[in-house]
Amino acid sequence: MTNELLLITLNNIDDLRSLRAFYKANGISQVLGYQTLDNYISWFEKEPQQKHIKIYTLPEVWRKSGLYMIVDRYQLMVNALDIAEAAEELRIALPQLDWSRGYKMTGVPDAHHETIYKLLTKMNLLIGIVRLHVVLKSREEALKLDVSCSSPEFDYHPLSQEEAAIVDGIWYSRGNGTLKFIERLIAYNNNMGIYLKSTGELIAWCIRCNLGLLGMLHVKDDYRGRGLAQLLVHMLSRQLAGAGEDVLTMISDQNATSQALFKKLKFEQ
After folding, report:
1. SS3 of 128, please?
2. Which residues are in the GCN5-related N-acetyltransferase Rv2170-like domain (predicted)?
3. Domain 8-129 belongs to what topology?
């Protein structure tokens, strides 16, 4: 491999499906890469002209190592199957991205962290790190989950586009571009809200994020301790399992509440 290789954009949906198949063939060890690609492919199938999404790789490299770099507004997702080749591939590929506004990097497997950190340091970029770990419930186990809703106090249905502002308003990752990002998640991905029947107020929600993971789980303070977070996780998990998927989420090492919840719900690392 030489420095003459220039980034290409994967636009052909069949090429993207082939790339997804490489990750799926590697089973549970590459489930994060598989679900990330599966999510974006589903978006391109819904709307082929995705203005703010680019999937980059190096010519022919992706057919061997599975290298991809997905730029989605302010987010950057990076992965490769061949760890031995990835360091050199990333050394060539990463500097070719436009780093003028920076990125929030997410969905990057631990195996690539050291390589990427060294590259970004060499590029004199400021780096902030939040450690996350992935937990999983298999499709078979998720299909067994109880999703009964016995309380007459609440209604349960997907969020509306207008409610993206409510989610964005309290999201810990809120910033430039996040409102549009959440609007798109609500439009394209599985999500569920819990509402007071008496007023229609949205009091809790969970949305499948762009990595294919359960995300943005939130229950308003006055309604915590009533099992609503667990119910939301069960509802979306059953939906995803019914579509043939394992269920994943990512949890910050500092988020003891979420760690305790997903341990209770028997998600495994």
Report:
1. coil
2. 191-268
3. Aminopeptidase (3.40.630)
